[in-house]
Amino acid sequence: MPYYISGVTADHNDLVARQPKEFKEQNGIDVKRRHRALSLDTADHEVVIADLESGRESVVGYSKLLLTTGASAFMPPVEGTEAEGVYTLRRLSDSIRIKRFLSSATPRRAVIVGSGPIGIEMCESFRRLGLEVSMVELAGQVLPIVDEDVAGRVQGVLESEGVKCLLGQQMLGIREDGGLVRGVELDSGVIPADIVLVAVGVRPLSSLAADAGVELGERGAIKVDSQMRTSAPDVYAAGDCATTSDILTGEQVWMPLGSTARKQGRLAAEAMFGGESTFPGVQGTAVVKCFDHTVGRTGLDEAQAKKAGFDPVAVQVEAESLHSYYPGRGTMYLKMTSDRETGRLLGAQVVGELRSMAEKRLDIMAVAVSCGMSADEMQYVDLAYAPPYSTAVDVPAIAASLMHSRLQGTVCRCDTSGLD
Amino acid sequence: MPYYISGVTADHNDLVARQPKEFKEQNGIDVKRRHRALSLDTADHEVVIADLESGRESVVGYSKLLLTTGASAFMPPVEGTEAEGVYTLRRLSDSIRIKRFLSSATPRRAVIVGSGPIGIEMCESFRRLGLEVSMVELAGQVLPIVDEDVAGRVQGVLESEGVKCLLGQQMLGIREDGGLVRGVELDSGVIPADIVLVAVGVRPLSSLAADAGVELGERGAIKVDSQMRTSAPDVYAAGDCATTSDILTGEQVWMPLGSTARKQGRLAAEAMFGGESTFPGVQGTAVVKCFDHTVGRTGLDEAQAKKAGFDPVAVQVEAESLHSYYPGRGTMYLKMTSDRETGRLLGAQVVGELRSMAEKRLDIMAVAVSCGMSADEMQYVDLAYAPPYSTAVDVPAIAASLMHSRLQGTVCRCDTSGLD
Question: Is B379 in the A-facing interface, judged by CB distances under 8 Å?
Fold first, then answer.
């Protein structure tokens, strides 16, 4: 949606993965639009639904039920958030309203509250449209899903693109005038704003399940097992409304992401028809485009690793994506974390120029972390090398060699220049 | 070097990873240029070397010896290969000679013998320079390191770029006139040529070792164990002159590649100083840029898998790299092979438009194959998703789902369009 708002994506209809009639025609699935599920009776296997057009209620029975109610954007309970020009960005209708407001009210100064992936994507969208952009973040760094050193680099990118970063600041209220937003009240004072995007996270939509006595879990999401089964018989849940587990710590977590939702949905469908696959959980992988840079993470950061009982060791590598003789290379920074005792790879974080293809190295690390690979093993993985694609020893392997040396206590000069 | 020949890389000095004086200054290593090792006495731990300038011979003792003699281009023993305009491409001097010939003799018609990665890279270089290009291949398909279906797509790319592919044809001789190449004699007749590049593979330079009684292995390369030790005490070998093992089959193989050489060199250095890491072997990963496409492979193809005792099952997916609403996507074709019994991923092959970043999916598969991941597990790996980088479920996971369904015997429509 940030790309629709900025005009990169021209038509909002392109953002709809599948239209109701496609469900019908391709899969024989009857999609009831403008209907609300009012209540759920897990004993009698029935759902009460209301047709929002006619107001008529009806009861629908089920053999198996899948709850995919999703999540909603969180709006902090402060004064003034109903003012025109204050938005969250969760539903397609949000992006259409924002885009309309941008062309009708022609705001000049944008304030983005929250510096997660959506906040960062919206910085780029607003700057692309020529707005002044200030980003407000409660934490002492931007993008709190990455470590401070990585965040510092992200902040550098944001600032070089003209984004003002206001850290350690809470949104205390919205100032308005005649129903139209005029500013955001922070701890440090009021900053003027013609449009405000609040992107401070989402909450699971689990009240239908909770009201029916279905057990909730982490952060109020619907608790599911590895086959997406809830506590109620024949009731499954998947996607942003459901919990999952962290594959590294085994702990129950709630990490709503589109990619996870797709996988859980597929697995739930299989499980409801007797499939035996299990969802292994997630590992906190995320990536975001920040102007001409890519930022991402997978696995545990140092703090999470310590909390989970590991003894984490981190190494950092700044390297070029290609040998100097081949055009188009970019610089990337890779931080890798391993467990001191076993050498097991626990996580990685990257920041790189877009053309460095840092996301490729992130996915290499994601698979390695998922498989429990050690730094010693990562050094020698047979990755695909040709000059247009990487250096002869690719960045994850360079970092792994450095890690291995550090864990062994041997001296290692990480001379990445010599790798040319 | 193909990129230097085409002008993508301007200066051949940029192709030299490290100059002799850098070895001296940075590492205290004395590089003796224009010296030849004449013989090796593994009992007395001595090497006889000759200074090629003065002709003087001397004896150098060693505590540990590392043989990194590399490989040389193979020239088939047919008539006429000494003609001017006939080249192999292995050493930097080869590329300098080819480039000089291109500008002095201004050849119009190029014939490339062999359709491996170097042959394909040189097709692009010669076309870029405006030459007519014919490629001769003994096998019935181009790029014999990939399966026939993948090769068919590669051939389509080559032909659309104006390369004439002559398959099932052997070079029987070179026709010359006054010492200058005029044509290549094939089974089907003579094709005219103003320049001929012979790229039919390399052979290990192992005679120094062999003459000293050091055991040779596969394809006449120096046999080494997982710590790069040869059969002779204190003698190690690494890189293109040495064997390695296939991590999937455990068999000794010879697969000379720059990336493998770098890793073996590093490991040998560690091992010579008491390090305990072992080289796990290779899995036949390779990638090559073919004009505006990327082609690659990792692991076992179907034939190799059968030979190794697996019961391979293959699935093919043709998919877009990004959702349709985000600009810059490309199409890629991914073929994935698993073992029927265990679901273990055995290998993958890709062909994709350059902008599809097929090499990323290849490296994801390389790590997964290396770790012994199953198709069922691959479906659910937590890869990095954001619209500028991939679809919500990335191509390897789509292929893995299809594979999983096939192995389970369940019906699966691989509706990749619905993944938008």
Answer: yes
B202-204 and B71-73 beta bridge pairing: antiparallel
What DSSP element (H or E) covers A122?
helix A117-128
Integer Rg of chain B from CA: 24
| Residue A394 distance to chain B (closest CA, Å) | 9
Copy the structure tokens of residue B163.
């390369």
What CA–CA distances, in Å, run from B80 to A399, B89, B133, B176, B180?
A: 49, 17, 20, 7, 9
Decide: B149 and B173 in contact? Cβ < 8 Å: no
Chain A residue with Cα closest to B326 = A9
Q: Do B17 and A389 touch (CB under 8 A)?
A: no
Q: Which helix (H) or strand (E) holds A84?
A: none
User: Residue holding tokens 């205390």?
Assistant: A172
To the nearest whole Å, the CA of A403 is away from the closest chain B CA by 13
What tokens appear for B281 in the block? 């072997």
Is residue B193 within 8 Å of residue B110, measured between CB atoms? Answer: yes
Q: Tell me the β-bridge partners of A111.
A: A134, A196
List, for residues A285-326, the tens digit of each pLDDT value: 999 999 999 999 999 999 999 999 999 999 999 999 999 999
Q: How far is CA B68 from CA A401, A412, B60, B201, in A?
A: 21, 22, 17, 18
Q: Does A284 touch chain B (CB under 8 A)?
A: yes
Round to the nearest angstrom and report the end-to-end CA distance of chain B: 40
> Which residues of chain A lie closer than 8 angstroms to B362, CB-CB?
384
For the segment A33-55, what is each residue's pLDDT rounded down to a tens digit?
999 999 999 999 999 999 999 99
3-class DSSP assignment, residue A28: coil
Record: contact B285-A382, CB cut-off 8 A = yes
Pairs of CB atoms within 8 A across A/B:
209
| pLDDT at position A419 over 70 | no
Least Cα separation, residue A210 to chain B (angstroms): 28
CA angle B136/B141/B147 to nearest 5° reads 145
